[in-house]
Amino acid sequence: MCGIFAIFNLPGDANAYRQRALYLSKKLRHRGPDWSGCVVTGNHILCHERLAIVGVESGAQPLTNDDESVILSVNGEIYNHRALRKMCPAETHFKTQSDCEAILHLYKQIGPDVVKHLDGMFSWVLLDKKKNRILAARDPIGITTLYQGWNSKQPGTLYFSSELKALNEECDRIIAFPPGHIFDSETGETTRYFDPTWWDGEKIPTQPVDYTLIRESLEKAVRKRLMSEVPYGVLLSGGLDSSLIASIAARETQKIIAGQTPLNRDGDDVDESAVASWPRLHSFSIGLEGSPDLAAARVAADFLKTVHHEYTFTVQDGLDAIADVVYHLETYDVTTIRASTPMYLLSRKIKAMGVKMVLSGEGADEIFGGYLYFHAAPSAADLHTETVNRVKNLHYADCLRANKSTMAWGVEARVPFLDKSFLEVAMNVDPKEKMSFKGKMEKHILRKAFDTSDDPTAQPYLPDSILWRQKEQFSDGVGYSWIDTLKDTALTKVSDEDFAKASERWPKDTPQTKEAYWYREVFEQWFPQEACTESVVRWIPRGDWGCPADPSGRAQKVHDAAYTKDA
């Protein structure tokens, strides 16, 4: 992944604005420290901050076609890029080995519909000079980040950026560009191109669960995400989701080394050079001393025989990082900041080892109803509608966290659970199969899909203690004292008098706790402009299901270490 910044239709000569654009693009350089690019043409500017993972030697951006009439700046990875190249005319001249260049040439053939053919995570801006046309698109779920901005003093001018911080000084309105959409200046409209069968949350599926299909679909999703020319690893918390991804990645890595996996099967594109440089999979975990996640990650890593790297942080390390985390995450959402802080600290350690790409387990809880508050779902239909809504809003929460916590240090996180094909399988399962209650653990069907206990000849994916471990939200699993200390610290930072006036200070999204007030205040210090709050959405459990407002898993009574228990 990288950082992109673009301005369309500046008033006057864009060359006079070049240095300003470079200054704004530099605010994204943590996302792409390997190289910078800038193209100024007419009254348009496209900038790029590159993190080189595929096409390392030749993939500098912005990309252009032979006559430089089409210019492209991309943040992301296109997993089916080899198949896309085959769709281009035989005489097409590819200048680079970049997985993104096919977008440029396919646009010349099929126009904006090119976005419908992409399998990957991406945000991009494309300029067609001949038509004076700009397109902007974001991947189906919003794994990558993209913002759009306007300045009322420059009507007709459009701004696009990977992060808010490159826009807040220039724009008086900023939105999170909607995932699964494409903007076309020719029509002036932003339209949804992503139209999966499960999109209508009120349409309740009745498909019986197919455990084999779930398992094989996730294995394929992991396999295609091993496309890399640089060493990679896995984030391993010891929870079900990250451990499954690590298990599959370890298996696929060994298959590649043994020559058992055709590199381009089904459009997959796994580069042997990255595997050869680190022939054993490396795993990474973080937590406070003695945390549940560190202990569980050790068990998983030993079982999978990964080269495991375990890091401990202190509560003070985390507290010291809060302001930087808010700056990079660009949110004041409580649960996102709680979980992002240890992930931010771990990403710095990972980057120091020379790793640029990691696999992560985001998305499974939204897909399978894995959060503990789903135990309170009134019905299977309610559960399904909630899972659809949670998946649709991942770009405000877990996707935002996974992207920005890692990219703050130039590390790319890939999330196999959010693969389009896997979503088609998992989101169409009868939600009765996803219901959890006493005697049936959350994400039961995902666990069962990888449970080999009924086949004594099969190699287990995970030890039972991990496969059937209760859901532990990352902000809890790194150590229970982490959230407890955040709450206690907020009590010392926010006075009763100030908290009583919270609604006067912030009528929109008024903080309901002193912890939320603290984060909102830090956010305002970094982003004082009113326009910056439009892209923030808070993550809270379903109060109408009788769930506590505190997003911690321990706030739910079914948690083994809950704050409160039924008598």
Any overview of this molecule?
Helix content is 35%, strand content 16%. It has 20 helices and 17 strands. The chain has helices at residues 18-26, 81-87, 101-110, 211-224, 240-257, 272-277, 292-304, 315-329, 334-352, 364-368, 380-392, 398-407, 420-426, 444-449, 464-467, 474-477, 480-493, 496-500, 502-505, 514-526; strands spanning 3-8, 35-41, 44-50, 63-64, 70-78, 120-128, 133-138, 147-150, 158-161, 173-176, 181-184, 189-192, 232-235, 282-287, 307-312, 357-359, 412-414. The strands form three sheets. The chain has a six-stranded antiparallel beta sheet with strand order 2-3-1-9-8-10, with helices on one face. It has a six-stranded antiparallel beta sheet with strand order 4-5-6-7-11-12, covered by helices on one side. A five-stranded parallel beta sheet has the order 15-14-13-16-17, with helices on both faces. Helix 2 (81-87) runs parallel beside helix 3 (101-110) and helix 4 packs antiparallel against helix 13 (420-426). The longest helix has 19 residues, at 334-352. Residues 263-268 and 563-567 have low confidence and may be disordered. This is asparagine synthase (glutamine-hydrolyzing). It catalyses: L-aspartate + L-glutamine + ATP + H2O = L-asparagine + L-glutamate + AMP + diphosphate + H(+).
